[in-house]
Design goal:
It is a single chain. This protein has 545 residues and is α+β, with helices and mostly antiparallel strands. The protein has 3 domains: 5-150, no CATH class; 159-203 and 514-545, no CATH class; 214-446 and 458-506, Alkaline Phosphatase, subunit A, CATH 3.40.720.10. It is built from 18 helices and 17 strands. It has helices spanning 22-34, 42-53, 59-80, 86-90, 100-109, 113-129, 135-149, 186-200, 229-235, 241-244, 260-268, 290-296, 314-319, 348-360, 394-415, 447-450, 477-493, 499-503, and strands spanning 153-154, 160-161, 218-224, 248-254, 300-305, 335-338, 344-346, 367-373, 381-383, 389-391, 419-425, 451-459, 469-475, 512-514, 518-523, 526-531, 538-539. A 7-stranded mixed sheet has the order 5-8-3-11-12-4-13, with helices on both faces. Strand 14 and strand 15 (518-523) form a beta hairpin. Helix 2 (42-53) packs antiparallel against helix 7 (135-149).
Length: 545
C-alpha cells in the first residue's frame, strides 16, 4: 500500500477541489447566455457543477468522473441551447440523403463567429486571471446569481422569454408593442387549438354545378419551395416586377407547414379547412381534393415537377392525392442546378414552356396544372463549365426563378388563352435562422417561414389592374379554393363580377402551423411553440408576431 500512495492518500480536512478547467465551460455559457444564445437550465448546471466539485481521493474515481463528465457536458450544453431535441434534427426529412457538400454547409452554419470571438477573448482572460483570482468562486457565484434572479431572463435585444407551465401566466408584446391581452396558460392554448381544428373540420368549399356553357379557362397552380416574405425581404426581391403584375396579393397567407411533402398535401386538399399534421396522412373525402373538384367541372389535370420527386417520397405523396404522374420528366430538360441530394434540377422556364407547348396542342376546353419547383431549396448548387458544381446563393436563384415566371406570364398573355395563374409557395427558406434553428433549418414552422407571398393573375380574362389588389386578412389554402370556385361561377354566369365582390368574405384562417416535430400558433399577437413530446407551450424566443 505504501508503494502507491495516490490510491489512498486522504484529502486534507475540509478541502474541496476547484472546477479547474471546467471554469471555462461555465464561463463560456455565461457569455453565450448574455448574447441570448442559451435557454439556461440553472438546476441542471448546478447539479453538474456539484458533481465536478465532490472531493475524490482515488485517482481512478477521478478518471471515471472525467469520462462521465465529458459526454454529460456536451448533452447539457445542447439542452441549454434553443435547438429542438437532438432526435428531431436526425428526423429531419431525408437528412441521410443529403449530399456531402450540403451536410458540410449545414455544419458550418452552427458556428457563430461572434460567439467564437468572444470565447477566444474569454479564454485568454481566464489564463491570465487564474493566477490571481479563484475563478471557481466566480463560476459558482454566477450560477447562484442566475438561480436567485430566476426567470424570465432578459436576453440580448431586450426580449423577455418566459416559460408557460400549467396555469403560469406569461407576458409579451405584440408586433405593435401593445400587451397581448389577458395572461394565458398552456391549458388555454390547448383548448384554443382543439377548437380551431374542430371548426376547420366543418369548413369546405362548395363548388358550383358543372356548366358546359361557362367560359373556359385553364388553372395553373405553381407551388414554390422555399420562398417567404422574409426571404424576399432579406434578398431585396420583395418588389420584383412579377408581384406588380399580379391581380391579387394575399398579404397574410400562412402555408401552415415548413416541409415540402405536407405542403403539397395541404395544397391538393385545399377545398377543406386546415387539417392537423397527423390528419394529412389519413384518408380524406373527395370534396377536399381541389383537383378532384376541378375534374368534376370538366378540367383535365396534370402534374409537373422540375425535379425527380424521389426525395422523401414527395411524388408518392402527390400521387396519393389522386394526381397523375408528371407528364414530363425533369430529365427531359437540361440541368440548371444540382439539388441538395445530388439529383438534377431543370430550369423552371424550360419545364413550364415544355408543358405549355404540349397544352396548346390539346383540344380540351379546360386544363388544370399542379407544378412544383425546388429551384430555391437550400443546398442546391450551380453547375460549372467543367461539369462540376459550386455554391448557389439564394438571391441569384430567386432572381432567376422570378424572372422565369415573369417570362412565362408574358408567354401566357401572348397566347391569347384564358388562364388563371396562382403562385403559392410551400414555405420559406429560413435564410437568417434564429435562436432555435440555424439558417436553413425548418423543423419548427415559425411565422417567418410560413408567411408566404401568394399571388393570383387572371390572364386574358379581364383587364389587369394597374396595381395588385391586396387581401390583408389572415388566410390559408381554403381561401384559394374558394376563389377558384367563385371564378368558375362568375364565368358560368356570363356576367364578370367586380374584383371586390369576388374576394369579399374569403375564408379567414388564424396562423396555426405544424410539422411532425413541432406546433406553432399565434395567439393574442404572441407566437407560441410546442415541440414533440412536450405538453407545455412556450413563447418562441426572440419572436413576437
Amino acid at each position: 500500500m505504501g508503494n502507491n500512495p495516490e490510491q489512498t492518500l486522504p484529502l486534507p480536512p475540509g478541502h474541496w477541489p476547484g472546477l479547474g478547467g471546467w471554469n471555462l465551460y461555465f464561463l463560456g455559457k455565461f457569455v453565450a447566455l448574455a448574447m441570448g444564445l442559451l435557454d439556461f437550465h440553472v438546476l441542471l448546471n448546478l447539479l453538474f457543477a456539484a458533481f465536478l466539485l465532490v472531493p475524490l481521493a482515488n485517482r481512478w474515481l477521478k478518471w471515471l468522473r472525467l469520462l462521465l463528465a465529458l459526454p454529460a457536458s456536451i448533452a447539457l450544453l445542447y439542452k441549454d441551447t434553443w435547438f429542438p431535441p437532438f432526435e428531431r434534427l436526425l428526423a429531419e426529412p431525408g437528412i441521410l440523403d443529403f449530399s456531402a457538400s450540403y451536410l458540410l454547409e449545414l455544419l458550418e452554419r452552427f458556428i457563430n463567429q461572434e460567439l467564437l470571438g468572444s470565447l477566444v477573448l474569454m479564454t485568454l482572460g481566464y489564463f491570465w486571471l487564474r493566477h490571481w483570482l479563484r475563478l471557481t468562486t466566480l463560476s459558482l457565484g454566477g450560477l447562484c446569481w442566475i438561480a436567485v434572479a430566476g426567470m424570465p431572463i432578459t436576453l440580448a435585444g431586450g426580449n423577455t422569454v418566459a416559460a408557460v407551465t400549467g396555469a403560469q401566466a406569461t407576458t409579451g408584446t405584440t408586433a405593435e408593442g401593445t400587451p397581448p391581452g389577458q395572461p394565458v396558460s398552456s391549458a388555454t392554448l390547448d383548448t384554443w387549438l382543439t377548437d380551431f381544428f374542430n371548426q376547420e373540420r366543418q369548413r369546405r368549399t362548395t363548388f358550383p354545378a358543372r356548366d358546359e356553357q361557362a367560359a373556359p379557362f385553364d388553372l395553373l397552380v405553381l407551388q414554390i419551395c422555399s420562398m417567404s416574405w422574409d426571404d424576399l425581404d432579406i434578398s431585396g426581391l420583395k418588389n420584383h416586377p412579377l408581384f406588380g403584375r399580379m391581380d391579387l396579393i394575399f398579404d397574410q397567407f400562412n402555408s401552415a407547414t415548413s416541409y415540402s411533402g405536407p405542403a403539397a398535401i395541404r395544397l391538393l386538399r385545399a377545398s377543406c379547412g386546415q387539417p392537423s399534421h397527423a390528419d394529412l396522412y389519413q384518408p380524406t373525402v373527395e370534396q377536399c381534393l381541389l383537383f378532384e373538384n376541378l375534374d368534376q367541372l370538366g378540367f383535365s389535370r396534370d402534374s409537373l415537377l422540375n425535379h425527380s420527386g424521389r426525395f422523401d417520397g414527395f411524388l408518392d405523396e402527390v400521387m396519393a392525392q389522386r394526381m397523375p404522374r408528371p407528364v414530363l420528366k425533369n430529365t427531359d430538360f437540361r440541368r440548371a442546378l444540382v439539388a441538395f441530394d445530388g439529383s438534377p434540377v431543370a430550369r423552371d422556364l424550360d419545364v413550364l414552356q415544355g408543358w405549355w407547348q404540349r397544352r396548346q396542342k390539346q383540344d380540351t376546353a379546360r386544363a388544370s396544372l399542379f407544378y412544383n419547383t425546388i429551384s430555391l431549396h437550400d443546398g442546391n448548387r450551380f453547375i460549372t463549365a467543367d461539369g462540376g458544381t459550386r455554391s448557389a446563393d439564394y438571391k441569384t436563384r430567386a432572381q432567376n426563378l422570378l424572372d422565369d415566371l415573369l417570362q412565362f406570364l408574358d408567354l401566357l398573355e401572348r397566347s391569347g388563352r384564358r388562364v388563371v395563374l396562382v403562385i403559392v409557395p410551400e414555405h420559406g427558406a429560413a435564410l437568417h435562422g434564429d435562436r432555435m434553428q440555424i439558417a436553413g433549418m425548418r423543423e419548427i414552422p415559425t411565422p417567418s417561414i410560413t408567411h408566404v407571398p401568394v399571388g393570383v393573375r387572371l390572364i386574358n380574362i379581364r383587364k389587369a389592374h394597374d396595381s395588385p389588389l391586396h387581401i390583408s386578412a389572415p388566410t390559408s389554402l381554403l381561401a384559394l379554393s374558394e376563389l377558384v370556385s367563385r371564378l368558375y361561377g362568375v364565368e358560368a354566369s356570363g356576367t364578370p363580377a367586380e374584383w371586390q365582390p369576388l374576394v369579399a368574405g374569403l375564408p379567414e384562417t388564424p396562423m396555426v402551423s405544424e410539422t411532425a416535430g413541432a406546433q406553432v400558433i399565434v395567439y393574442q399577437g404572441v407566437t407560441y411553440v410546442r415541440l414533440e413530446g412536450q405538453s407545455e407551450w412556450t413563447p418562441y424566443p426572440g419572436s413576437a408576431h
